[in-house]
Design a protein that fits this description.
Blueprint (H helix, E strand, L loop, with lengths): L1 E10 L2 H30 L6 H15 L9 H21 L13 E7 L4 E4 L6 E4 L7 E3 L8 E10 L2 E10 L1 H8 L9 E6 L5 E3 L3 E3 L3 H18 L15 H35 L2 E5 L3 H4 L6 H7 L1 H15 L2 E5 L25 E3 L6 E3 H17 L8 H13 L4 E2 L3 H9 L2
């Protein structure tokens, strides 16, 4: 049996929203109670892990905290598992127990429910599905159908402002997983080097460039406008300010949250489609290991880097390669793919970030900087694989372009034939 997940938006009514918000609050309360007890214990020289604190909480909750019985038992059990993990992480770093921080109330929270307490309901004479959770009379409506037939192991209900989601974890059979894999498991024995960049999100060694959809940039501009509108509404502007948030402020904050969610969904859709097309068409894939955290410190490029989501894109391609049994290689972080000539191997240490063309002093070749890096990653991959891969032809390039067009992805096809002729003559 294998595990796989699916996230679905839900549409609770007002009573159900109140119940879900109680679950979020009880989870936060249980965690903060455990943190308070833990901090007091280490001051006294005592040590209790998350499971000891859970037993202590369970012995007190009937008398001191009877309100936790209004929600599912998992809302106050799972926080202590997270607390135990936080305690272990602090011990790994410092070796000595240190005080933990409390969780504050936010507009983005979640809670866990075990698979034994949830049930999927399909109403008669309707194709719509609902999820039944403990202590709620009516089931909550799902906005889309569940894709898998396996056993539900657990679910996590989360919210962003007043937008609610449920994420299911399924245990599915090998046969069902193979059917899902079949869409990606087309083996063609072809290799690919991928360079991630700002000018184009991905530059492939075949050659081909993939840009972010124009809609993301367009929605980001609207985000700036909504942020300015929100700032003009009546709300507390400092920590001690007692000004109440106006109704217009709350409405504007909801519009801003919806726009953030829309941009996130567009990025996720882009990453899913790009990774599927790449894994479907290539069997050997090489990407560079970037220090994304360090790159984000450059404030001139931080926004462009975060828009492309370098880390998520790489991890998604890697996970899909593992799922279908294809080869993924992460190039060494110090491999200078940008500064090496892909034609003669000469090293050019003078190239700057502002130089968009790579000019080799040895063989006098001029080539696009990102395309040069992609070819170097391709050559790095071939050396590591140690085998001859199938040649990438113009027919394959045409099929790849068609695959991207079918998925409505923003791509660059400028000088494709000229770049391909240069590539095959290297």
């Amino acid at each position: 049996m294998k595990q796989i997940s699916q996230k679905i938006k839900i549409e609770p009514n007002n009573i159900q929203k109140t119940y879900l918000n109680k679950c979020f609050g009880c989870k936060r309360f249980a965690y903060n109670w455990g943190v308070e007890q833990y901090n007091e214990n280490i001051k006294k020289g005592m040590f209790k892990n998350g499971y000891d604190l859970k037993k202590q909480f369970n012995s007190l909750k009937r008398e001191k905290f009877p309100f936790v019985y209004d929600v599912t038992k998992y809302a106050t059990q799972q926080p202590f598992i997270h607390l135990n993990k936080a305690i272990k992480d602090t011990l790994k770093k410092g070796g000595k127990p240190i005080e933990l921080a409390f969780k504050k109330k936010s507009n983005n929270e979640s809670f866990y429910i075990g698979g034994d307490q949830i049930k999927i309901v399909t109403k008669p004479h309707s194709n719509k599905q609902y999820i039944k959770i403990p202590l709620l009379d009516k089931p909550i409506k799902l906005t889309e159908k569940i894709k898998y037939d396996g056993k539900i192991l657990s679910c996590t209900i989360s919210h962003i402002y007043s937008i609610y989601f449920v994420s299911f974890t399924f245990a599915i059979s090998e046969e069902e997983l193979l059917n899902k894999k079949a869409k990606l498991a087309i083996f063609k024995e072809k290799a690919l080097g991928i360079d991630l960049g700002v000018k184009s999100a991905l530059t492939l060694s075949v050659p081909f460039s993939i840009h972010l959809p124009e809609g993301i940039k367009r929605e980001s501009k609207k985000l700036i406008k909504l942020s300015r509108q929100l700032d003009r509404k009546i709300h507390p502007r400092t920590k001690g300010d007692q000004t109440k948030k106006s109704k217009n402020y709350l409405k504007a904050s909801f519009r801003l949250a919806k726009k953030h969610l829309r941009i996130l969904n567009m990025k996720t859709d882009f990453i899913e489609k790009v990774s599927s097309v790449i894994v479907k068409n290539f069997d050997f894939i090489c990407m560079e290991d970037l220090n994304v955290k360090g790159m984000l410190k450059n404030h001139h490029l931080a926004r462009a880097i975060s828009e492309v989501s370098f880390y998520k894109l790489k991890e998604k391609i890697h996970s899909k390669c593992d799922m279908v049994g294809k080869y993924f290689l992460s190039a060494d972080r110090f491999f200078a793919s940008t500064k090496i000539c892909s034609n003669c191997g000469n090293y050019n240490s003078q190239i700057k970030l502002s130089d968009r063309k790579f000019i080799c002093d040895n063989c006098n070749i001029t080539i696009d900087r990102d395309f040069n890096a992609a070819i170097n990653l391709y050559n790095y991959l071939i050396k590591k694989v140690g085998r001859v891969t199938a040649e990438f032809t113009l027919a394959d390039l045409t099929a790849l372009i068609k695959d991207f067009d079918v998925n409505r992805l923003s791509t660059s096809k400028v000088e494709t034939r000229n770049q391909h002729n240069f590539y095959i003559n290297l």
